[in-house]
Design brief:
alpha/beta, Rossmann fold, 2 domains, five-stranded parallel sheet, 12 strands
Amino acid sequence: MNRLHIVTPQADAIASAMRGRTDAFEIVAAPSFAALGDTVAQIEALVAFPFHLDPALAARMPRLRWLQVLTAGVDALTGIDLHGAVVSTVSGIHGPQMSEHAFMLLLALRRDLPLLLDQQKARVWQAPRPPLLAGSRLLIVGVGQIAEAVARRAQAFDMHVTGVSGSRREAPGFDRIVPTSDLIEAAATADHLIVLTPYSERTHHLISRAVIAALPPHAVLINIARGAVVDEAALTEALAHRRIAGAGLDVFEREPLPAGSALWGLPNVIVTPHMGGWSNAFATQVAPIVATNATRWFAGRRPLVNELG
């Protein structure tokens, strides 16, 4: 029997969204690995979030042959022995929600929404003079599918969009793309910087103290990628001393963000709880990829969609 295990609190919703695409396999949907008990050892084909896995759990799945993660990145799998299992991702689905979240943070900071909400509570009528997005310079670090979605929306706001990439030199929505070696120079002319590069050893603290120092005092930084891409200590210091205007942060070096972090209390920071990739359409977004890959997997056809090399 071809059996696909979907293990996540959203398992039933994903299974329901796959209805009509599952003739070649049976779905076992479970909200957690604990709900499966000892049958975890029988899992061969698994759909799950990588951050729900750990080395001890992986050791209980010696028959695992294919892991479909429900994320674009797989950095959470570092140090986990998957017994040589094939890994595929849902890369490409997150453009709408991630770009909306980026612009929510950007507009809230530029229009000083936290101040306006405080004034509303205090019944104060006083209008700030916000800078325009139109005509401003947006720097996007990392030029992938999500960045393209952000760039298209930025063009609708009449922004000038520059990308930073280690490999690409042109992409839809970008006015220009510069190499990573020019990051500091590009940061010096940016009004807003959005971090979208995946995390790896190579990108650890790519947004370094030097990059943050290069940003103009009026600039804001948005990080919706991974926390460790940014030197969080250097960013916190720059924000506390108003060396840059503000930051919208959805990801952090430690998550959940510790209660003692200074970022919680800085008035020029908006903290969101790593929610950029979520939406009410998540199940319907991932279902086609999961169904296609499951059909291919059980038929012995490779490569899978977004299969990692």
